[in-house]
Amino acid sequence: MKPSLVLMLNCLRRGAESRAAGRHFSSLVLLHQHRRRPLPCSPGGTHPRSSSSSSSSGGGSALVFRQHGAPSQVVELESFQLPSVGAEDVRVQMLAAPINPADINMVQGTYAILPDLPAVGGNEGVAQVVEVGPQVTSLKPGDWVIPRDTGLGTWRTAAVVTERSLIQLPSDIPLLSAATLSVNPCTALRMLSDFQTLQAGDTVIQNAANSGVGQAVIQIAAARGFTTINVVRDRPEFNQLSDRLKALGASHVITEEALRQPHMQELFKTCPKPKLALNGVGGKSATELLRHIQHGGTMVTYGGMSKHPVVVPVGALIFKDVKVRGFWVTRWKANHAHDGKAFTDMLDELCTMIRQGKLTAPVCNQVELGDYRRALEAAMEPYTSAKQVLVF
Ligand SMILES: NC(=O)c1ccc[n+]([C@@H]2O[C@H](COP(=O)([O-])OP(=O)(O)OC[C@H]3O[C@@H](n4cnc5c(N)ncnc54)[C@H](OP(=O)(O)O)[C@@H]3O)[C@@H](O)[C@H]2O)c1
Q1: Counting atoms of ligand 1 from 1, which one is nearest the CA of 303?
Q2: Residue 327 CB–ligand 1 contact under 6 Å
Q3: In the chain, where are the structural domains located?
Q4: Residue 313: CB within 6 Å of ligand 1?
Q5: Which residue owns the Cα nearest ligand 1 atom 32?
Q6: Which CATH number is 184-330 given?
Q7: Residue 211 C-alpha to ligand 1 middle, in angstroms?
């Protein structure tokens, strides 16, 4: 067996990574500490608030899990009463919320950070402000808002949360773009900006290119003039998928199998070898990305969809001095929590791209809340190339 450095991908397990992320995990626990049985009324805010508040702000429904397990079995639609709106609180009505792989892993109990149970599922989505407390200064009824951080529990019709747990978003962008903005496009933008100095004409290679992250990478890279090599798993509809990704701006779309073929050298006569590789899969797929990366290049791992460890060929380290890095947008947000402007600047940049028609939402299936079991199952189906989004 060739000597190799096997890097166990622990990010989907509660292990070293969750201990490293201890500060964030504790804050998530704090967010959810009032989520003891019965169902929490408010997902946000670190100040305890009684669910038996004298004046309720009405009711709602939420997708709740009271134990970890298969999402379509443990997630239930439950009704709840909202607490009254406190001085620094905001009452929101959810408009749309996606089902992301991390949400699924949280329900399964395999994600790096987990809420106390019972918990409302979902970490991303867009809501509209309905009512604000007297000390709220940055938001008003009608504003669109998204969660500032992971752990808000967005699979619900309504919520009362603290002002500081939300960020305002302009309401002149499409609803699905707003609902899917704060995780995948932010991840794509950071990975294209923070790991290698790239210039127009440089090449980026990525696997899971049809994922939400991958589609954002394609579009942001195209806007910056980068060549992208986009790797997807083979499928009967490969040509349609390839055409769709090329319409987004993909330079090349190839299958995992083609990536291993000698004719890749032909492709590299038309563009430089990649300075940056983005890995959302792990396993053999990640190893193949590393084989094509140029001297001194970087591979950033952000996901482990295959659930296999990343194997780094020794030659890539010794002879090419590649850097093997990781990225977690939750950690980026925690690291920049003191500088709210960093996050809002990034959202402004992405919204500008959306308005210019340079960044569109991933292909989405919009699903009514009552159809949640079908949506949860569809979110775990392979080869769908579409994001399930709950609409309220
Ligand atoms: N680190 C971070 O900050 C961060 C941020 C956002 C997302 N993520 C992670 O990034 C990954 C993608 O998220 P997303 O929301 O973009 O996903 P998504 O839109 O739901 O797409 C899932 C992707 O994974 C691929 N896939 C599924 N199982 C696979 C397997 N066994 N082998 C290879 N590919 C497989 C799918 O390809 P097929 O079409 O071939 O099934 C599809 O491209 C997830 O692991 C997510 O947790 C991480």
Answers
A1: 45
A2: yes
A3: 3-179+362-391, 184-330
A4: no
A5: 306
A6: 3.40.50.720
A7: 5
Q: Which atom of ligand 1 is nearest to the CA of 330?
A: 3
The pTM of the full predicted model, rounded to 2 decimals, is 0.89
Section 261-271 average pLDDT: 93
**For residues 126 and 169, is the Cβ–Cβ distance under 8 A?**
yes
Specify whether 111 is catalytic: yes
Residue with tokens 């308005």: 355
| pLDDT at residue 364 tops 90 | yes
Which residue, chain included where needed, has tokens 């709840």?
A: 80
CATH 3.90.180.10 matches 3-179+362-391: yes
For 306-337, the pLDDT digits (tens) are 999 999 999 999 999 999 999 999 999 999 98
**DSSP line for 170-211:** -TTS-HHHHHTSTTHHHHHHHHHHHSS---TT-EEEESSTTS
Q: What tokens does 170 get? A: 């302009």
Ligand 1 centre to CA of 278 (Å) is 12
Ligand 1 centroid distance, CA of 382 (Å):
10
Q: At how many degrees (to 10) do helices 212-223 and 340-355 cross?
A: 80
**Percent of the chain at pLDDT exceeding 90:** 83
